[in-house]
Amino acid sequence: MGIFNTTEFSDEIEILVDKLEQESNERELKREERALIDVLDTVKLIEEGEGLNEFWLSSIDHARISNSFELIGASTIVDTLNSSQWCQSSSSDRSQYSDAESNHLSGIEEEYFEALTEVPELIEAFIEEELEA
Predict the structure, then answer these.
(1) Rounded Cα–Cα distance for residues 30 and 32 (Å)
(2) From CA 133, how far away is CA 126, in angstroms rounded?
């Protein structure tokens, strides 16, 4: 369990994402389907790991992830990702951050987690509008 709160997604969302991940082995997913997987996987990565620092140090496609959050309508999340992008060139160990860097990142993560409370609802609306699921 990570150091952050965990975001609860409905069983329907979790089942749909599992189904899409399985289907991705057999076919290329549509951009909207890929965005849904990206968002859920990224939320879990950030919550279960070391927060935004871990996101920026991971080997995932950061631009695609940012675009995925934008696609579902989570522009505040995109803003927090952009604000924390400096982590990409910082120490991989959060304990090596200066007090100013640590405080700055904590403030950004606070905004991120506040905005994250809206993401399950945004995903529900996105699924209804874009995936017709």
Answers:
(1) 5
(2) 10
